[in-house]
């Protein structure tokens, strides 16, 4: 992922792009027009030789700084026959689309993106963010009337009186002075759909989503932990890589990457899948102390105090550094599957298909605050890009149109979580994965890297946060008051880096069990006393669930010895 920073209407400031240099080590670009500045830190994935930014139209009257990938750029270029392109960059189409269609072109883009477009002819500008919020983006306002746009909080928090997360699927126009939603899919209304489940239609839609993300001019790989989602991503990539432009440039041997504590479930499962698919597999180990030592850097980079996000971001942060050191600049990951298909274990308790569907809608709408934020910033911290085919616009439309009755867990009929996805890739003649991997139980990434990781974090926090501190937590942190010592510990670090009230408001809060929304906690009365983001908090569902009698702050990493191999460990990019 690249880094963008724009300062609009500020006469005495230059864009402080070097705050985001970690996101784009390949090029630094700065454009000034009057009191407007567009800055860009480039991570070159497509057309590394000539795609430096900002990008322009023919006469340079329209300038654009973009973070993202436009997968249908070749198709869009064919619609712009009267335009001359300066580069081969996939993002070069944006300025020309604006010339042809005005502000209404954003929905034509198939990809992930955050951009600022400046029209110097009337000094107007537009800002847009991709449909789900895979790329990170913030907007802020200065006392001098300036508007700031940045890929990360640290690009604007010291200069703005107020700032906030830029909403996904929205466009901000200087002409109207406000936001409007450009992304309006049928599922957004949360009305229960009724399209019959067709496994082949779902399979083709996901294969297409993965294939389009093989567009790259640099070395790449897949994040693989041996769970359903990451394994499907790896399997499809390995199946269709040969014959692509990427294979011609870098070879058809797929590289896969996994991280975990020594002996963790992820490492074993990923190794088995890698052997089955024939990938060049890279296994990275970390210790609990390694992770604890990185916590401050992780919070600085991912810019949140949300407990489950920090738990999962830390191993991903450590792994991303190792991957980048091997010369790899892009990885394909598996975020989004659990939100779309109800893969979290608490979905076992969904009372009916309407509530099941509404919860999946709520989870998708919140992804930019959790998994997308983690995947984007954990990798971008080291100049690595993560692509997420499960969050492809077309695939989401197909998957979210399925009658949710088919998605619901039904033990009597042998349907476990994400059954519709598993069934779609259960091909006897040309198997994508071994059966026991295809039907392994869901495990959240922060659990799968090793249960002792979370327990180690809790113990470390307990050593630094006293009972006396917790008694005053509501006075020190009245907004999103931390209820555990682990949450208090993370909050202290976050507030040191980002002390502004606007910063703390960018982080979501509310009750949650096993990554549920606050609304879904109501599905089971026992959950109200066991609020924890770990999948093991799904009492009565997870095979290694916490003991119901044990207070949550003291839950041990008790792993039942008889756990079968049918235990899903999601991809390093897949968890919630």
From TrEMBL:
It catalyses: L-aspartate + L-glutamine + ATP + H2O = L-asparagine + L-glutamate + AMP + diphosphate + H(+). ATP binds at residues 223, 259, 333-334. Gene3D superfamilies: Glutamine Phosphoribosylpyrophosphate, subunit 1, domain 1 (3.60.20.10), HUPs (3.40.50.620). Residues 2-177 form the Glutamine amidotransferase type-2 domain. GO terms for molecular function: asparagine synthase (glutamine-hydrolyzing) activity; ATP binding. Its EC number is 6.3.5.4. InterPro entries: Asn_synth_AEB (IPR006426), Asn_synthase (IPR001962), Asn_Synthetase (IPR050795), AsnB_N (IPR033738), GATase_2_dom (IPR017932), Ntn_hydrolases_N (IPR029055), Rossmann-like_a/b/a_fold (IPR014729). One of its GO terms (cellular component) is cytosol. The record marks 335 as: Important for beta-aspartyl-AMP intermediate formation. L-glutamine binds at residue 90. Pathway: Amino-acid biosynthesis; L-asparagine biosynthesis; L-asparagine from L-aspartate (L-Gln route): step 1/1. NCBIfam families: PRK09431.1. This is Asparagine synthetase [glutamine-hydrolyzing]. It comes from Gossypium australe. The lineage of its organism: Eukaryota, Viridiplantae, Streptophyta, Embryophyta, Tracheophyta.
